[in-house]
Each structure stands twice: as C-alpha cells, then as structure tokens.
Amino acid sequence: MILKQTTTKHPDFKYLCRQLDADLNSRYGSAQQQYDSLNNVAAGNTAVIAYIKNRPVGCGCFRSIERSRAELKRMFVSENLRGRGIAKALLEKLENCCRNSGHLELILETGKGQPEAIGVYMNNGYRLIENFGPYEGMENSICMSKKFQVSP
Fold first, then answer.
1. Cβ partners under 8 Å of residue 5, min gap 6
2. How far is CA 132 from CA 106, 142, 152, in A?
3. Which of 28, 89, 33 is nearest to 58 (CA)?
4. Does the residue 152 lie in any domain?
C-alpha cells in the first residue's frame, strides 16, 4: 500500500468521495441529504489517498477549524478492502499531517449506522464528545476527538 498526500481536488480523491457518498446514501437513504452540504471540503493539500497496485482504495482529509483544532473529513475505504488496516494507515498519516500543521486536536463526525468507522476511531484513541457545530441536535451523528501529545 502507498499513501499519497495530495489536494482535495485530485481526481482520485473525488472518485473515492463519490463512492463514499454512494455508501452513505445506501446506509441512510433520504436522511443523508441533511449532511450533503456539510461534506463539501475546500480546496487544499490536506487529502491523503491510499493506493494498492496503483488503484485508489481509500481516502481522507482534514480542514482547519481554528488554530489548534482540525476536523477529519471524507474518510473512506472501498468496501471490499475493509478490515485490512487501510483505514488505520490513512488515519495515522492524516494525524501526522494535522499535527505537522500545528493542530493539537482532531475532531470528527460519523454516523450511528457506520459501526466499522466507529470501531476504527475508538481503537485508535478517539473518544466520544458532544456533537459540535452543525451536528448539534442531529440524532444520527456521533462526534469524537483525539488530542495530540505535545512534545516538550
């Protein structure tokens, strides 16, 4: 597996996001529409794509919320390749990029209908937090946070 840091405008990132959107729509149906506008990400070099045999199989990115805090967005691994450590590798790379950008905390939102995503985050040190920002009051949302260790 190769991990490539790139932009959110990269064609492979967009391709994987279309797969993610299809997956979310199949899980949540019309309820997913309330999240569609929240899933847009600005242009930036915060995306990471996982490749196996030159084929894009997973992605994620983050966006700065405030100086010390960023939000993880658009995490996805192709369904037929889940459970092989791709999400963990993507998450670790994104965390390193986020930390190197000066952020001290990474927050995220995922859905109650995505137990595999919840498991990946919990197994990698994320803890449940109150729903933040646009996710306040959304019953299908689960929000999590991971604070990074500060080196002396």
1. 45, 47, 48, 93, 97
2. 12, 10, 30
3. 89
4. no
| 59 belongs to a structural domain | yes
pLDDT tens for the chain, 152 residues long, are 999 999 999 999 999 999 999 999 898 888 888 787 777 787 778 999 999 999 999 999 999 988 899 999 999 999 999 999 999 999 999 999 999 999 999 999 999 999 999 999 999 999 999 999 999 999 899 999 999 987 65
69-77, strands of its sheet edge to edge = 2-6, 47-52, 55-66, 69-77, 105-111, 141-147, 127-129
Q: What pTM was estimated for this model as a whole? A: 0.91
Consecutive H or E run containing 95: helix 86-100
Domain count, the chain: 1
Query: Residue 78's domain spans which residues?
Result: 2-147
